[in-house]
Amino acid sequence: MSHYDDHYNMTKFNDEYYIALSRNDDRQIRMSINERSKNYLYDGFKLSIGSPLFVEQGYVERDKRLGVTSHRTDIMSGCGSFIMEKTVKDKIAQYVFNGMQLYPSVFIDVNEQWYDNYWYLNIWEDLDCWDRKKSIYDPIDDDWDEDDTMIDQYYLDEQVLNEIPEKQRLIFRMGGESSGYIFMHQKLVDIFQENHFTGIRFFKVSEFTEGDQYQ
Predict the structure, then answer these.
(1) 152: alpha, beta or left, given left = phi > 0 and alpha = psi -120 to 50?
(2) What are the start-end ranges of the E strands in the chain?
(3) Rounded CA separation 89/31 (Å)
(4) DSSP code of 214?
(5) Of 23, 83, 106, 148, which has the highest C-beta tally within 10 A?
(6) Band of the pLDDT at 143, cuts 50, 70, 90?
(7) Distances (CA, A) of 142 to 32, 54, 136, 139, 152
(8) What is the rounded distance in angstroms from the CA atom of residue 201 to the CA atom of residue 215?
(9) Residue 116, number of CB atoms within 10 A of its CB
(10) 127: which strand partners?
């Protein structure tokens, strides 16, 4: 492989992948776990409990204090991931692989109205694929766990990603650092954008610096 090809291979992943985040909008509902599911091991574990994951509208008191009226969207964040309406789930279900699942979810709003057409994107296996030499991040102390590392700019590790078939890495949660961001390939981002699904936005890895999501 030529030097040019090697350079392209190192950089193409940063343009192919996006960080998926909720919209920077106080009116968008943020979800939290409902009392009915408080004992579910949903963070880092496969869900196989036979009943839906119940989530509810979070930050209710804050919204009241600020006079904010929140609204449901096709996709909502919280509980370490996203829930999405069935129309969204049906579009991306084929891209969910080992280490993740789309699990039935019930959303309960502030008026105690139930919506049973949501699905929780549960990712219990992380993929550590950020390049330690090229990413920009805060150094960690010798006694600090690497999972506490805070990254300012990601540079994806081409060696790690090249060893995984593309169809098996179209969605993943970053491992080995503190944010736990969910990364999606351009092929999935196109689906979200072409269908105008609400409640989610994407930052291309090559253009993202920590803090951009708050602007």
Answers:
(1) alpha
(2) 17-22, 30-33, 53-57, 75-78, 81-85, 100-108, 114-123, 136-137, 151-153, 171-173, 182-185, 200-204
(3) 18
(4) G
(5) 83
(6) low
(7) 34, 40, 18, 9, 20
(8) 13
(9) 12
(10) 174
Span 16-35, pLDDT tens digits: 999 999 987 878 889 999 99
Q: pTM here?
A: 0.90
Distance of CA 115 to the CA centre of its chain: 22
In the block, tokens 């491992």 appear at 175
Type of residue found at 96? V
Rounded Cα distance, 34 and 113, in Å:
13
One-letter-per-residue 3-state SS of 117-170 = EEEEEEECCCECCECCCCCEECCCCCCCCHHHCCEEECCECHHHHHCCCHHHCC
Pair of tokens at residue 179: 């944010």
Instruction: Decide if 151 contacts 120 (C-beta within 8 A).
Output: no
Q: Which amino acid is at 114?
A: W
Which tokens go with 84?
Answer: 């999405």
Any idea what DSSP says for residue 209?
-
Q: Tokens 């930052």, residue?
A: 203
The per-residue pLDDT for 11 is 65
Residues in the chain: 215
Q: How many CB atoms lie within 10 A of CB 50?
A: 6
Residues ≥6 apart with Cβ < 8 Å to 82: 20, 22, 75, 76, 120, 121, 182, 200
